[in-house]
Amino acid sequence: MTKTFSIAVFHGDGIGPEIMAPTLEILRRMSEASNGYALRFMAPPAGAAHYAATGESLPAASMETARNADAILLSAMGLPDVRYEDGTEISPQIDLRKALKLFAGVRPVRLKVGQKSPLNLPPGREIDFVLIRESTEGLFYTQGRGEVTENEARETLLVSRDVSEKLFAFAFALARTRKETGRGPGRVTCVDKANVFRAFAFFRQMFDAEAAKYPDLTADHAYVDATALWMVQKPWDFDVLVTENMFGDILSDLGAGLMGGLGLAPSADIGLDHAVFQPCHGSAPDIAGQGLANPFAMILSGAMMLEWLGIKHADPEMTTDGSRLREAIEEVIAQGDAVTRDIGGTASTKIAANAVLDALFVA
């Protein structure tokens, strides 16, 4: 019996619609070829362009559509010249994270043997780790509500037990799954600054308490500045990293750099009941409408969505299709004939996306 999953699709701003369109086409083709699942796409309005036209960046009805969907697929959002009255950028994705309590920001960093990287990797080395960023509090807690006077500005960092314990449980569960499937050694590293800030000593204390529940896994710690160094020197040593919101925001871009750029960086923001999947990059309005955008991060985010839905609903076909889609993109990148200019190629958005379709259905 076929089960239909409803997907709330936010097409985004700038290049957002250009990279979402081929992603939806690929997901449609995969679901049509499946034996047990179907995808129903809904497109509620949101984003900077919508705010400029209506004064709303994320209407209440759009939020409700997202809340009732089985998953949320979100393209690049925001425009540099469209801002809220306080000067901050339009960011419905952050509103979704907070409203739906999406505490685990999942940022995979994967580089297979044969793929190009700004790093000169030793022969035979590949990178495969996951950075988990707490996504609802940390230094982002007072976003839009910080105190600013003539002489000083203050923002509040929040680390709560409720959210942190959920975050660490998620990180260790992911490490166990990766170990069981041969993707990692079963190691979780807490990235913090516990030598300076009491908030991070508290963060580490809760991490250690959760680690004690997983004697089959390895748990260790690293300061955030040392982690940035080691991500360049020996990124193949990492498995699962878990950290605070702002640290994760910065380190996830470094992880994207290891892969060749943000055009290859997918992400997910996951809670107990909901999840949003989106590329890490911005809306790049300077190249919008020119067919130059790299669709791979958006498509990889769709692959992550399939895997998450498959695990959540015990549907092995969806999980397998998510892996198949990720591997098809990795194959296209490794071959190098159909990649966009941001990663050294000359292909258009359409040619790059069609190469993924060919890898899935023709090869």
Notes on the protein architecture:
46% of the residues are buried. The chain has a ten-stranded mixed sheet with strand order 2-1-3-12-11-4-5-10-8-9, with helices on both faces. A two-stranded antiparallel ribbon has the order 6-7. With 363 residues, it is α/β, with parallel strands linked by helices. The longest helix has 20 residues, at 161-180. It folds into two domains: 1-100 and 273-363, Isopropylmalate Dehydrogenase (3-Layer(aba) Sandwich), CATH 3.40.718; 106-146 and 154-266, Isopropylmalate Dehydrogenase (3-Layer(aba) Sandwich). It has eleven helices and twelve strands. The radius of gyration is 20 Å and the shape is globular.
List the quaternary state of the chains. Answer: single chain
Widest β-sheet, arrangement of strands: 2-1-3-12-11-4-5-10-8-9
Q: What's the CATH topology label of the largest domain?
A: Isopropylmalate Dehydrogenase
| Percentage of residues assigned to helices | 40-55%
Strand content: 15-25%
Form type: globular
Any idea of the CATH class of the largest domain?
A: Alpha Beta
Number of strands: 12
Please give the count of helices: 11
Q: What structural category characterises the helix and strand content?
A: alpha/beta
Query: What is the CATH architecture annotation of the largest domain?
Result: 3-Layer(aba) Sandwich
Largest sheet: 10 strands, mixed
In CATH, the homologous superfamily of the largest domain goes by the name Isopropylmalate Dehydrogenase
Order of helices and strands: EHEHHEHEEEEHEHEHEHEEHHH
Distance between termini?
29 Å
Query: pLDDT average, as an integer?
Result: 94
Radius of gyration: 20 Å
